[in-house]
Amino acid sequence: MKVSCEYSHLDGSCILKKKFPEIDKEIYDVIFDVVGAKSKVSKEKNRKGTLLYSPSNFKSEFKTGFESRGFDEIIESYLYPTCGNVRRVKGFKKIDFFKNKIGVQTQFGKYSFMLYDLAKFQYFYLQNKIEVGVEILPSYILQKQMSSGMGYGEQLISDIKLLKRQFPTLPIKIIVIDIDDSENQMHL
Questions:
Q1: What is the pTM of this model?
Q2: Helical (H) or strand (E) element with 18
Q3: How far is CA 133 from CA 41, 102, 180, in A?
Q4: Is the link from the previous residue into 168 a cis peptide, with omega within 30 of 0?
Q5: Higher pLDDT, 172 or 88
Q6: Theoretical Cys-Cys bridge with 30: which of 42, 58, 65, 74, CB 3.0 to 4.6 Å?
C-alpha cells in the first residue's frame, strides 16, 4: 500500500514523530507491507460479479503486520444499565492495535464506524491509556473499488475539520491509503 494523504489533528503527527519515532516508523512499515487483492465478488445490484478489494483481507494483513511488531489490542470491559431498567449489561471498548500509549485503528467498514473509532480513542485518552490515536482508512479512489457504504479517509478528515477542534480533543493522525500500483504504471 501507499499513503495518499495524511491529516494531523491537534499535532498528532508531530507528537508521534518527536516522542514515538519508532512506533511512527513501524506504522508506515506495516502500511507498506500490506498488498491487498481483489478477491471479493460483488453481489450488489449495479456491480454484480465484479471483483472488489476485500475488507477482511486488508484487516487480516494489518493484523499480521501489527502483531508481528509487538502491537496488541487494548480492551476495557464495563457494566452499564439498560434504559429504565435496573439490570446491567456487559459492554466493552476496544482498540485493535496498541503499543506504548499509541492506539491504532484500521477502518474498512461502514462510514459510521469512523466516528465511533474517534469516540473510542477519546475514551481511552480520557482514561490516560493512550496519548495519540492513529486511524488508517482507504482513500476515496480505493473505497470505490470496495463494497458500497464504506467510509474513506477524505470524508473523515472533512468531518473532523467541520467539528473545529471540538471533537475529538486528543491528538490524532489520519493516514489515508491507496493501492501502490507504481509497478503497473511503469509498464504501461
A1: 0.90
A2: helix 12-19
A3: 33, 6, 24
A4: yes
A5: 172
A6: 65
Q: Which residue has the cell 480492551?
A: 75
Which residues share a beta bridge with 177? Answer: 3, 138
pLDDT tens-digit map of 53-107: 888 899 999 999 999 999 999 999 988 877 777 778 888 999 999 999 999 999 9
Set of cell numbers at residue 72 = 496488541
Domain interval for residue 41: 2-186
Closest CA relative to residue 124, chosen from 153, 97, 157, 154: 97
Give Cα separations from 187 to 17, 39, 164, 182, 183 (angstroms).
35, 23, 44, 9, 7
Q: Which CATH number characterizes residue 38's domain?
A: 3.40.91.20
Q: Which of 31, 38, 1 is nearest to 181 (CA)?
A: 1
Domain total in the chain: 1
Cα torsion 8, 23, 150, 186 to 10°: value is 90
